[in-house]
Specification:
The protein is α+β, with helices and mostly antiparallel strands and 139 residues long. It has helices spanning 22-32, 57-70, 89-98; strands at residues 2-10, 17-20, 36-43, 48-54, 101-107, 110-111, 117-123, 130-138. It has one domain (2-72, 87-138): Sandwich (Jelly Rolls). The chain is 25% helix and 38% strand. The strands form two sheets. The chain has a five-stranded antiparallel β-sheet, with helices on one face. It has a three-stranded antiparallel β-sheet with strand order 2-7-4, with helices on both faces. The longest helix is centred in the middle third of the chain and has 14 residues, at 57-70. The radius of gyration is 16 Å and the shape is elongated. The chain starts with a strand and ends with a strand.
């Protein structure tokens, strides 16, 4: 069995951002030499997410608006977690909504994604280095 473990570093200039990861993940599949297998992609941080959805600008904006309605950043005093001196309780909630990881099949050496599917990293408390684990296994 072949395998590859790599860590992608992400540092967004904004507090909230979405980063398209599909090309980087496919490059790692290519590097691994796996033709048939599985690829795990997960955030190593509790205020960031990895998820699959459509790579369309309007939808990216819609996610930000929707998530801010569900878990608004301000006022920060609305969250008990922020009483500890933090200001990122909303980021923890947004991560829970958007998910921690994805697993994608590898077929014929390619990520087996649907027509409009793409892998994204969602950042909800950015402006510092964070890691994304990519683990590939297969034949």
């Amino acid at each position: 069995m072949k395998h590859l473990t790599e860590y992608l570093m992400v540092n967004t200039p904004k507090r909230y951002d979405f980063v398209h990861l599909t090309p980087k993940v496919q490059a790692l599949v290519d590097k691994s030499g796996v033709r048939e297998g599985l690829c795990l992609v997960n955030s190593m941080h509790i205020t960031a997410s990895v998820f699959i959805n459509d790579h369309e600008g309007g939808l990216l904006s819609d996610w930000q608006v929707w998530l801010e309605k569900l878990a608004p950043h301000e006022p920060i005093s609305q969250y008990r977690h922020n009483l500890t001196g933090e200001d990122n309780a909303d980021a923890h909630l947004k991560r829970t909504i958007m998910g921690r990881e994805v697993v994608v099949a590898i077929t014929g050496g390619r990520l087996d994604l649907g027509t409009w599917e793409a892998i994204f990293y969602g950042e909800f408390d950015g402006r510092r280095n964070k890691r994304v684990l990519v683990k590939i296994i297969g034949e």
